[in-house]
Inverse folding.
């Protein structure tokens, strides 16, 4: 069953007439559709230019209803009330009803042709037996009922459009969140791959093997959002497992099946700042940020030199550069995972600024 709002109001009224006037089966209509074309109930195609002009003249009327002898949509009634005879009145068995279009404010038209017998107010009588007053009652009644149905179709359509807009906004939001998630996962994957390469080098030297990580391993570790310590533990376990199962191979591929994440320690609950483990690197960045704030409080220019001098104990700028170089992968990972932290350090220590800019450029590309 279709809702009223899924119809144009006039075709909807044509459907409803079967319910209100079961004895009437000769109806026709003319209306401006949502595509701004004029249609009739006679065919599915829009009107051509000649009939479109005639239709617009009809739609310019201010009438609500009128009785006529003609059921043709484009037939003009030559009779006026002053010219009507009794025979003319008896012959007028066609009711024209007009409804204001919600599209352009002009009138759409519905035509109802009554049979010779019509049921009116419990009287089963010949149509010519209905006088002018009774016709007026009939037209007023039908106009009132069908106008209510017409308005219902308009209101329901407006409601359905609002619901559709809400659904479209939600779909767009979900799409954006999905894209953001994909972008974030790509960023984490890039950082984690660097960390994996750093971890595996030690074991490749120790075991005299070459280890290759599948993309699914990188993706899974990125999705789990583990701390660096736990990533290192999971990777070490996976490498030893693969090594023991492939003693004769020189190149050993680490697959998702080798990751036994349930075997590693449960990640600690995040604090209010969202920081997990890997305290050494985090502490290093925290110290740099604290030194930058001290320099700021003293009115000093916040740069690598002044940050180095405000550390406790003070160090040289090359010492900071060396420390960043040694922890490059971990710092890059932490900058991506916590974009809201170490704001002064990101701007003032050049090696860290370079890492942070790489993060931003990767995000933009993604």
């Amino acid at each position: 069953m279709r809702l009223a709002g899924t119809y144009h109001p006039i075709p909807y009224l044509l459907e409803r007439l079967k319910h209100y006037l079961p004895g009437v089966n000769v109806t026709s209509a003319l209306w401006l559709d949502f595509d701004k074309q004029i249609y009739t109930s006679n065919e599915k195609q829009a009107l051509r230019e000649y009939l479109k002009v005639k239709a617009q003249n009809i739609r310019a009327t201010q009438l609500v209803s009128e009785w006529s002898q003609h059921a043709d949509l484009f037939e003009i009634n030559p009779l006026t009330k002053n010219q009507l005879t009794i025979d003319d009145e008896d012959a007028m068995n066609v009711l024209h009803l007009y409804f204001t279009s919600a599209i352009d404010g002009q009138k759409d038209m519905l035509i109802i042709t009554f049979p010779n017998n019509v049921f009116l107010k419990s009287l089963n009588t010949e149509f010519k037996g209905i006088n002018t007053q009774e016709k007026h009652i009939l037209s007023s009644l039908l106009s009132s009922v069908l106008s209510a149905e017409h308005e219902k179709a308009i209101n329901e359509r407006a409601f359905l459009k609002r619901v559709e807009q809400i659904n479209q906004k939600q779909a767009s939001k979900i799409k954006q969140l999905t894209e953001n998630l994909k972008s974030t996962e790509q960023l984490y994957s890039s950082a984690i791959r660097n960390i994996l390469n750093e971890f595996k080098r030690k074991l490749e030297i120790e075991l005299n093997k070459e280890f290759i990580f599948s993309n699914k391993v990188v993706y899974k570790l990125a999705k789990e959002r583990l701390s660096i310590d736990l990533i290192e533990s999971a990777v070490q376990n996976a490498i030893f497992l693969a090594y023991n199962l492939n003693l004769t191979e020189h190149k050993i591929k680490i697959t998702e099946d080798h990751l036994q994440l349930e075997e590693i320690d449960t990640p600690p609950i995040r604090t209010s700042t969202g920081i997990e483990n890997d305290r050494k690197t985090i502490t290093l960045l925290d110290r740099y940020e604290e030194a930058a704030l001290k320099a700021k409080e003293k009115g000093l220019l916040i740069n690598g030199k002044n940050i180095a001098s405000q550390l406790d104990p003070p160090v040289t700028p090359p010492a900071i550069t060396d420390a960043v170089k040694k922890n490059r992968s971990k710092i890059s990972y932490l900058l991506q995972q916590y974009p809201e932290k170490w704001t002064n350090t990101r701007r003032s220590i050049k090696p860290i600024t370079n890492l942070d800019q790489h993060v931003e450029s990767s995000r933009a590309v993604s």
User: Anything to note?
Assistant: Residues 20 and 309 are 91 Å apart (CA to CA).
